[in-house]
From TrEMBL, chain A:
Domain named NADH-Ubiquinone oxidoreductase (complex I) chain 5 N-terminal: residues: 68-118
Keyword Transmembrane in annotation: yes
Segments passing through the bilayer: 6-25, 32-53, 85-103, 115-134, 140-159, 171-193, 213-232, 253-277, 283-304, 311-329, 335-357, 377-396, 416-440, 452-472, 492-516, 596-615
Location(s) in or outside the cell: Cell membrane; Membrane
Keyword terms: Membrane, Transmembrane, Transmembrane helix
PANTHER family: NADH-UBIQUINONE OXIDOREDUCTASE CHAIN 5 (PTHR42829:SF2)
Main location: membrane
Protein name: NADH-quinone oxidoreductase subunit L
One record GO biological process: electron transport coupled proton transport
Automatic annotation (TrEMBL), chain B:
Biological role: NDH-1 shuttles electrons from NADH, via FMN and iron-sulfur (Fe-S) centers, to quinones in the respiratory chain. Couples the redox reaction to proton translocation (for every two electrons transferred, four hydrogen ions are translocated across the cytoplasmic membrane), and thus conserves the redox energy in a proton gradient.
Family per record: Belongs to the complex I subunit 6 family.
PANTHER family: NADH-UBIQUINONE OXIDOREDUCTASE CHAIN 6
Membrane topology: Multi-pass membrane protein
Annotated GO MF terms: NADH dehydrogenase (ubiquinone) activity; oxidoreductase activity; quinone binding
Major localisation: membrane
Catalytic activity, reaction form: a quinone + NADH + 5 H(+)(in) = a quinol + NAD(+) + 4 H(+)(out)
Domain of life: Bacteria
Descriptive protein name: NADH-quinone oxidoreductase subunit J
TM region(s), chain numbering: 12-31, 38-55, 61-83, 95-116, 136-166
Keywords in alphabetical order: Cell membrane, Membrane, NAD, Oxidoreductase, Quinone, Transmembrane, Transmembrane helix
Cellular localisation: Cell membrane
UniProtKB/TrEMBL annotation, chain C:
Organism: Cohnella pontilimi
Name this protein carries in UniProt: NADH-quinone oxidoreductase subunit K
Any one GO molecular function term: NADH dehydrogenase (quinone) (non-electrogenic) activity
GO CC term, one of those recorded: NADH dehydrogenase complex
Pfam families recorded: Oxidored_q2
Topology in the lipid bilayer: Multi-pass membrane protein
Task of the protein: NDH-1 shuttles electrons from NADH, via FMN and iron-sulfur (Fe-S) centers, to quinones in the respiratory chain. The immediate electron acceptor for the enzyme in this species is believed to be a menaquinone. Couples the redox reaction to proton translocation (for every two electrons transferred, four hydrogen ions are translocated across the cytoplasmic membrane), and thus conserves the redox energy in a proton gradient.
EC number(s) per entry: 7.1.1.-
Length: 620, 173, 102
């Protein structure tokens, strides 16, 4: 018996919790929410057992499936895979989910729909775990959409706020564009794969050993369409616009879905179907370029934002760009490594931000300041997260960023410099954020106070992980990459990479300290010289406005035209059908006179007609 | 239609009885007084009984006279007596119903005659047993015993039902 | 043309006259009597077939006996219903009975 055989139980506990919570509903009382937490704890323990088993390195990869649908000769299977990659993702998802669950007990304490909230979180956790475990693309796609739905529900959790409603719709619609790409890719794969197989092992075999079965052009198309799905989910340019808006949701959700797990699903998808990308140079280049561009693009926007959660959101977009960059230059291990560390420190940052927001009741960093004095634990843990994100050794982010930069330098030197500049910008905006929130004097009226233990405990756990998680792979020890991908890592200890990345990070932090803490450099040093640039950054390069102008408006116009068409033509036809039926009914009602003889006459005429019809058939 | 008809005794009897039956039926529809109608139909029933005799179905003919002429017509006359029939004949006519009814009936008649003409009947074959009444009696009490009993149950039920229906309801007071 | 066709034609004529009476006549008693006429036309068919049919046998006659019994039952119940309705409505005109509409 191995734990891997019971991997299907991992998503089952949250599903059960979801069912119970949604059935109990609002009347259940706050304590019922612990059911969700308990379920995620059980899942976490099971995931840890599975991962521990895999770490021992003695068991084979495990796959179990059953025939779901039998259509003619084609049988569709559904099942799960337990590999090193999936067990890693299981641990990340369940761990963050459990910690966010704990945290939410504090954060959502005064919300009257707390049971609904925990039900959604449980459903999300289950879907995400299902996505991770799926052994074929179709079930993955189903769970992919399910996490999308959960994201929609949770972003719009406070649907009384119009912004939250709009953000939920935006998140759903924008990611749908990507989902459509993934769906088309899936159909193409189904069409072209030998035996219509959609499971990952067959895909792996076809694209590695039987190269040439699928034509090069189709391969590129499939890869790009899959990447489109990943772009939508992971908030890559040009579909990144939903992620910052999604920060209207409760902060624990931002930490769980929009930082650690769901947005990483895109990266995970590309990693899972990596063989398809490897078969196409064009696709790889596209992934690398989009990733690199998104990384630097989002980082510059992050510099000019004033909403604490939006800064973190753009930082997430930027870091996901990093992961895509790593994938694009062919290093799955670096991407997964960054995903792994990023999940911890970004969740930490979001939860810390939530703790601050909880205390000062504003999200604008210009109204904060000096919060660190009263919120020691939050300040320290947030600081650790910020350092990890900035890539300061020895925190986790340094090692993973280093792995990505090394891979980039080997394959695409230009992208290495993009990454390095992004690292500088990252350090700068994190320093800005940290110093403006925690240092200096209070600027708002609210008096900060430390959050309850149930909220600080997850912060401490994540802070510890943000420190130590990076040591699973260092330039001197490629153990993690080998474990995840099963391949020997390239010898890549490059002093130059380390020096450059540490230098730019320290420079960024130092500059941020000078500007925002010490005040030696004036804050408006840039805005006074080139006011246009700051304005552009504050408005996120006017991407939203551009989309509104070139997409939303024409589509809205088309929709209005169709609405008119619907109103007068379609509805007209429907009304006509209805009225003709009603008229016929009135006519028939007159036949229904209650006159027995009328009925008899009708029956007689009917009989004559039938007899004539039968007899008439003889003549022609 | 071929008219090479042999004037056998049977044909003469059939023809005269058929004319009686049709005349009785048509008259029944033409009279204005209900009693006349009923009596005219009784005449048709008697003519039919005669036809049954021609068809060597003496027992059926007997029952026909007994039941239709003796029972049903009398029953109807009782019904007429128990209800009032004022203003007969001058009731407003219903032209649509009458026209359509006539057209429908004529069409049906046409179809039936067409079907009869079209059908291929076998030539006369084996004769029936001479003493049909005895044979019917035997059949009724052997082979047809169960339907016979069922019909008697049906009759009993119908008559009880008729009594229950026609009984004057008790005044609640 | 053999005799069977003649009998069947006569029966058809009587049946159609009865049907016309059922549809057109207003007096409920005449309607009932017309129904009896239709039944009788059927009886004539049965008896004719019992003599001239493919397999002449007494079954046709027996069948007509059963039909007459049912007709008797029907007439009795019909007249009973008629009397009951007459008591309620003081009329025997079929076109005034429109209870079916309700």
């Amino acid at each position: 018996m191995t734990f891997a055989q019971y991997a299907w139980l991992v998503p089952l506990f949250p599903v059960a919790a979801f069912a119970v919570l949604i059935t109990l509903g609002r009347g259940a009382g706050r304590q019922a929410a612990w059911i969700g937490t308990l379920a995620s704890l059980v899942s976490l323990i099971l995931s840890l057992c599975i991962a521990g088993e895999r770490l021992s390195g003695t068991v084979d990869e495990y796959n179990a499936h059953f025939t779901w649908l039998q259509i003619g000769n084609y049988s569709l299977n559904a099942g799960f895979d337990v590999t090193n990659l999936t067990s890693l993702m299981l641990v990340v998802v369940t761990l963050v989910s459990f910690l966010v669950n704990l945290y939410s007990h504090g954060y959502m304490r005064d919300d009257e729909r707390i049971t609904t909230f925990f039900a959604y979180v449980a459903l999300f956790t289950a879907s995400m775990l299902g996505l991770v475990l799926s052994d074929n693309l179709l079930t993955l796609y189903i769970f992919w959409e399910l996490v999308g739905v959960c994201s929609f529900l949770l972003v719009g959790f406070w649907f009384q706020k119009p912004e939250a409603k709009a953000a939920a719709k935006k998140a759903f619609i924008v990611t749908r564009i990507g989902d459509l790409g993934l769906l088309i890719a899936l159909l193409l794969l189904f069409w072209y794969m030998p035996g219509n197989a959609l499971d990952f092992s067959s895909i792996h075999n076809v694209f590695t050993t039987e190269a040439g079965v699928i034509a090069g052009g189709i391969t590129t198309l499939i890869a790009l369409l899959i990447f489109l799905g990943a772009v939508g989910k992971s908030g890559q340019f040009p579909l990144h616009v939903w992620l910052p808006d999604a920060m209207e949701g409760p902060t624990p959700i931002s930490a769980l879905i929009h930082a650690a797990t769901m947005v990483a699903a895109g990266v995970f998808l590309v990693a899972r179907t990596f063989v398809i990308f490897q078969a196409s140079d064009a696709a790889m280049t596209t992934v690398a370029v989009i990733g690199g561009f998104t990384a630097i693009f989002a980082a510059t926007i992050g510099l000019a934002q004033n909403d604490i959660k939006r800064i973190l959101a753009y930082s997430t977009v930027s870091q996901l760009g990093y992961m895509m960059l790593a994938l694009g230059v062919g290093s799955v291990s670096a991407a997964m490594f960054h995903l792994f560390t990023h999940a911890f420190f970004k969740a930490l940052l979001f939860l810390g931000a939530g703790s601050v927001i909880h205390a000062v009741h504003t999200q604008d960093i210009r109204e904060m300041g000096g919060v660190g004095r009263n919120m020691k634990i939050t300040a320290w843990t947030f600081g650790i997260g910020a350092l990890a994100l900035s890539g300061i050794p020895p925190f986790a982010g340094f090692w993973s960023k280093d792995a990505i930069l090394t891979a980039a330098l080997t394959h695409q030197p230009l992208l290495f410099w993009v990454g390095a500049v992004t690292a500088f910008l990252t350090a700068l905006y994190m320093a800005r954020l940290f110093f403006m929130v925690f240092a200096g004097n209070p600027r708002g009226e609210a008096h900060a106070h430390e959050s309850p233990a149930i909220m600080t405990l997850p912060l401490i756990v994540l802070a510890v992980l943000a420190v130590v998680a990076g040591f699973v792979e260092t330039p001197f020890n490629g153990w993690f990459g080998e474990w995840v991908t099963g391949e020997k890592p390239e010898a890549h200890t490059s002093a130059m990479v380390i020096v450059v990345s540490v230098a730019v990070s320290l420079l960024g932090v130092y500059l941020g300290w000078l500007i925002y803490a010490k005040g030696t450099v004036r804050r408006d040093i840039v805005s006074s010289r080139i006011p246009g640039l700051v304005k552009v950054l504050e408005n996120k390069y006017y991407i939203d406005e551009l989309y509104r102008f070139i997409l939303v408006k024409p589509l809205g116009g088309l929709g209005k035209a169709l609405a008119v068409f619907d109103e007068y033509v379609v509805d007209g036809v429907v009304r006509m059908a209805g009225q003709s039926a009603a008229g016929l009914g009135r006519l028939n009602a007159r036949l229904q006179s209650g006159q027995l003889q009328g009925y008899a006459l009708t029956a007689l005429i009917g009989l004559v007609i039938i007899a004539l019809a039968i007899a008439g058939r003889r003549f022609w | 239609m071929s008219f090479n008809i042999e004037f056998t005794g049977e044909f003469v009897a059939f023809f005269s009885l058929a004319v009686c039956a049709i005349v009785g039926a048509v008259m029944a529809l033409n009279f204005t007084k209900v009693v006349h109608m009923a009596l005219s139909l009784a005449f048709t029933f008697i003519a039919l009984a005669g036809l049954f005799v021609v068809l060597e179905a003496e027992f059926v003919a007997f029952v026909q006279v007994l039941l239709y002429v003796g029972a049903i017509t009398i029953l109807m006359i009782f019904g007429i007596m128990m209800t009032k029939h004022q203003g007969e004949g001058q009731e407003p006519s219903r032209p649509l119903l009458e026209t359509l009814g006539a057209i429908g009936c004529l069409a049906l008649l046409g179809i039936l005659i067409f079907a009869i003409r079209d059908a291929n009947f076998p030539a006369d074959s084996a004769p029936l047993p001479l003493d049909t009444t005895r044979e019917i009696g035997k059949l009724l009490f052997t082979q047809m015993a169960v339907p016979f009993e069922l019909v008697s149950v049906l009759l009993t039920v119908a008559f009880i039902g008729a009594v229950a229906l026609a009984k004057r309801e008790e005044d609640p007071q | 043309m053999n005799m069977l066709a003649s009998y069947l034609t006569l029966a058809a004529v009587l049946f159609c006259i009865g049907l016309y009476g059922v549809i057109v006549k207003r007096n409920a008693i005449i309607v009932l009597l017309s129904i009896e006429l239709m039944l009788n036309a059927v009886n004539l068919n049965l008896v004719a077939f019992s003599k001239y049919g493919v397999q002449p046998s007494l079954t046709g006659q027996l069948f007509s006996l059963f039909t007459m019994t049912v007709a008797a039952a029907e007439a009795a119940v019909g007249v009973a219903i008629l009397v009951a309705i007459y008591r309620a409505r003081a009329s025997v005109n079929v076109d005034e009975f429109d209870e079916l509409r309700r």
